[in-house]
Amino acid sequence: MTRAPVVFVVDDDPSVRSSLKFLINSVGLQVESFESAETFLQRKPPDAPSCLVADVRLRGLSGLDFQRELAARNIPIPIVFVTGHGDIPMSVRAMKAGAIEFLTKPYRDQDLLDAVRIALERDRTRREQEKDLTDLRQRFDSLTPREQEVISMVVSGMLNKQIAGELRTAENTVKVHRSRAMAKMSAQSFADLVRMIEKLKGPAKKAS
Amino acid sequence: MTQSAKSKREVQLEDSIPEAGAPLESILCTEELRGRPSRPPDYEKENRAFVALMSALADSPSTIFQTLAETILDITQCDSAGLSLLTRDGKKPDVCGKRFYWPAIAGMWNPHVGGGTPRNFGPCGDVLDQNRTLLFRHFERRYPYLMPVIPAAEECLLVPFYVAGQAVGTIWAITHSDRHKFDAEDDRVMASLGKFASSAYQALGHIEDLKFQVVEREKAEAAVRELANGLEAKFRCLVDANIMGIFIWTLEGRIVDANEAFLHIVEYDREDLVSGRMRWTDLTPPEWHDRDEHAVAELKALGSAKPYEKEYLQKGGNRVPVLVGGALFEEGRNEGVAFVLDLSEQKRAQENWKEAQQALQMTQVELARVSRLTTMGELAASIAHEVNQPLTAVTNNSNACLRLLAARNLEPEVLRRALEEIVADSTRASAVLARIRAFIKKTPGERQELDINEVIQEVLALARLEFSDNRVLLELQLTKALPPVLADRVQLQQVLLNLIMNGIEAMNAVTDRPRLLWVRSGIDESGDVLVAVGDLGTGLGLEPDRVFTPFFTTKANGMGMGLPISRSLIEGHGGRLWTTPNDPHGAVFSLTLPVAAGSP
């Protein structure tokens, strides 16, 4: 990842907001702060690993509504909630909806910073996975239709001879398609190729 | 002559729009009647005509008009003859009618029976206006809507027709060709026959009225009889149902008859009644005799006595509370009926009710205590947040400094700014704590001289978060230098906080106007200190005072105790708490407190 991670702080209390910024800055992380969920939503999603530190009791859009809104807008940013007096049902809801941590003030600074690190790490991983998948798809898309066809059959366990019979072509032709496809996909081995195709299939299945 | 539905031609004259036709003079030739050679009166024929009319009157009075038309046709030798009557309802002659109705026509125009002309646009109207006989020639030249009525009229002789001295119509005769012309004799004989028919008609009317009256009277009598029978039956039902005690008495004191319910109330049995031993005067304890005499006087004067409470002595000597009312059967007689309700149950219930009231009061005191604790609990949550915010900031800033220090990366300028913030946040936290201490420290029931504005400010500070959380704006109008009130600080805070919280809550659903809550302080006309809290919420509806009834609530999670308790607290201070609608939205809660004695 080329760009430095960013922590977004959303809190309507100015002292809390600026002190959180100071605290997170002190461990060398970049911070941007917002006084409400609405002002944060106006910002373009960053092209870097990032996470949110937000108060559950926000003026305007509350923390939990904020979380829902982010999900609705397909912004998969990890959230660390802090609150003055959160109850158990509230924290359960937040965690179920994917929050990284639900901290009650006063919290230990280490707990908050750990939660922020976990959140950033998770976002980084997600981004990498997303990027891998994008690369993989690009590579797969660069195959010719016939190569894609041959690869699918190979992965499903058919022998070259069987594929040649199915496609009514010479076994050698199949071999050529297969080796070209392997090269284009940058697959080191047959097993590597199978993993790649499974990965491509995975999210596609979910989406359907 | 008969009129069959087939031959009858409907002519909708009103539908034809009368146009300015020829002037009246141009179609009148009444004066010609005098000049024309007149035939001698045929009295014999005229008498026969009278006889015909009379027998019509005797046999079937309703045909009198048709008989008149036919008689005129016969005597004048015209082609069509008939009668036009002004009418409002299409039946009875009426001077004020707007339209002429043709109840009878003989001759060629007979199919038009039932038709008519408007009052102001026809030959009949002109005759009535001039109140004399008129002779028309080709009247359709003036009244264009008569054009479609066929065969067309050559000459038309119209004579006014009187009922009870008033001209309410005309008798007319028409020729459809010039073979015959009307003369003075036609005028005379028509007027003569008309006069007779008119008298006959009036007589007929009287007879009909009389018949109607007889029928009505019979009906009324039947109704009275039925009512009387019904009443008797109903009364009997009432007696036998034993829903209440009923007895028949004489003014002298005898009980002639009584139902089971009455005997049950006074615990006598039927033998006592039959033997004639029971006297209502004996059933009444001495101290009630005066009240009974009053009732007897009322009975004699008015025929009935309003129900009143008294006691009866039961056979065993016990007293039973009752409600008694009575009525004389007929004026002048000394017999009547009395209705008796046993009040023992009600009296017992009243006693129970008093006890229940006391219990309720106890509960209210208890609830007031619980409510105060609950409010304190809610406040505690609010306060925790209030204190937590600055403490969190202090902790964050300090921790950041420690980390930078450990990394040997703490710039003096950064440290200075952090320390400044730490000081500001610490001050903020201790201010909140000071407010809480002031709120809690005061022991309940401790009255002291208070500046109401100060109390309002304290409460607003406590409710600050509620305002921001609910996005409610505050408008504060405090009158300066108000005289002090003698009050319990906590109770007063409790009441004000309750009113403010209610106002904020009442605006939860408001989205189409600002959520504004105003708090005002001042002095009212009587010199008391006044505080009013107004909101732009949903209001309290038609009976705003209901909100002071315990357990009444307009809130989903309300207990319905806040306002009743608030009112009792304020009243406990000698003040008042009430509500009025806020125009055009919401409600205003106002409270007054007397100024502390000794202050100006």
Structural write-up:
The complex is a heterodimer of chains A (208) and B (600). Chain A is of the alpha/beta class. Chain A is 59% helix and 12% strand. Chain A contains nine helices and five strands, in the order E-H-E-H-E-H-E-H-E-H-H-H-H-H. Chain A has helices spanning 14-26, 37-42, 63-72, 88-96, 109-141, 145-155, 160-167, 171-184, 190-207, and strands spanning 6-10, 30-34, 50-55, 79-83, 101-104. In chain A, helix 6 crosses helix 8 and helix 7 packs across helix 8 (171-184). The model of chain A is unreliable at 204-208 (pLDDT under 50). Chain B is built from 16 helices and 18 strands. Chain B is an alpha+beta fold and 600 residues long. In chain B, helix 3 (43-59) runs antiparallel to helix 4 (64-76), helix 3 (43-59) runs parallel beside helix 6 and helix 11 runs antiparallel to helix 12 (412-441). The radius of gyration of chain B is 49 Å and the shape is flat. The A-B interface holds A 13, 15-16, 18-20, 22-23, 25-27, 57, 59, 82, 84-85, 105-107, 109 and B 381, 384-385, 388-397, 399-401, 403-404, 407, 418, 421, 424-425, 428, 468-469, 471.
